[in-house]
Amino acid sequence: MSTRRTILKRLGAAAVVTTGVAVAGTSSASAAVGDEEILLDSFTGTDDQKLTAALDMARTSSPRRPIRLAARSHSFSQTRTTFSGLRILGPNVGWQNPEISGTGGALPQCNVTLNCGNGASSWLVGTATTYNVMVSGITFKSSNAVTQFYHHPFSAGTSYATTLDTLSFYGFKHVLGTPADPFSMTLVTTKGSWTCVAVQDTQFSLRGSDNFLWVAGDMNYGWQGANGGKYLMRFSNLSKTAVRHLYLTARGGSRAVLIEGPASQQGGLDFTDCVIEGQNLNDPAMGALIVVNGGGVSFTNTKLNFGMARPADFTDQKDTALIMVQGGTALITNTWTNRASATAESIPVVAVSGGSAYVTRVMGMGGTWVNKPLVTRTAGALVSDTSVRAA
Q1: pTM
Q2: Looking at the structure, do residues 370 and 283 belong to the same domain, yes or no?
Q3: Domain range enclosing 1
């Protein structure tokens, strides 16, 4: 037993596939020994009843023991309040995509269908500052197109040192936060390979600081349709945070990224090695891909493609470039950009109408570029190098 516990501690709960030793065939706390796992299927009743019993055991355990789901389909409808040390884990961790089937049961290995609402009716809700929450290795599906996975508003404190690892979402209204009430996060890590498909609205609305988002992972997320210029991701007063390896596809009426924050915002929201684009040159985004309204942000090594094909479609604002800087400070460097078939070379890659932008090393790729990519300024400040032509 001591050897097994040592291995568990070294590898971490998310990396260990349960052997069934932890809690078997009983709901009594005496059956869970030391730092072993709590198996959901060791309890009786519906999946919600099983999870209630497992959460009660986890909440009172010391040290906190993780709850391990089975390699089967689960269904949960009850909203759950998070607590420090809460861990809900799938049977193992690996890439999963709910759109792919016929793989002999290998993908996905753990399905959870949620029949919940959003905001305060989400599946997981933080009502106070919590520490060390973890969810890992699960494919989540919404049964009703209005579900939100996790809600932790700023009014309730912050989700501190949370780890979200290798998760997939199908048919969700929101995943983390809402546009009106972003997810409050500090020292949060998202890692592993993520997938968001069949989305119904903005999946990520985030605020806080000191986070590492997909630095050790990646996310593939797309949205298609006439959705009035909604954003795939909104970063509201999020500072001192690293974001990497996003593959965002904003087709049709959707935009990809919104950055906003007050003048007091501390900056340091850094995007690196991301693809932000429409689907392809013939299935593009109608308007801007990135909008910066405030705060401090950098985009480095960005593949920025296939936008601004039909900006007149929008009525909420006038889209003028692939990247619009309307406030705050934006550092934009090492950008590869491809035009959609319907996007003229005269459409700016960057347009500044407020705040300040520093633009260097922009490369126009694909098709014929007669001139260098264009950057423009109508107000604010624009500093650029010789890789672009400024107007």
Answers
A1: 0.90
A2: yes
A3: 1-68
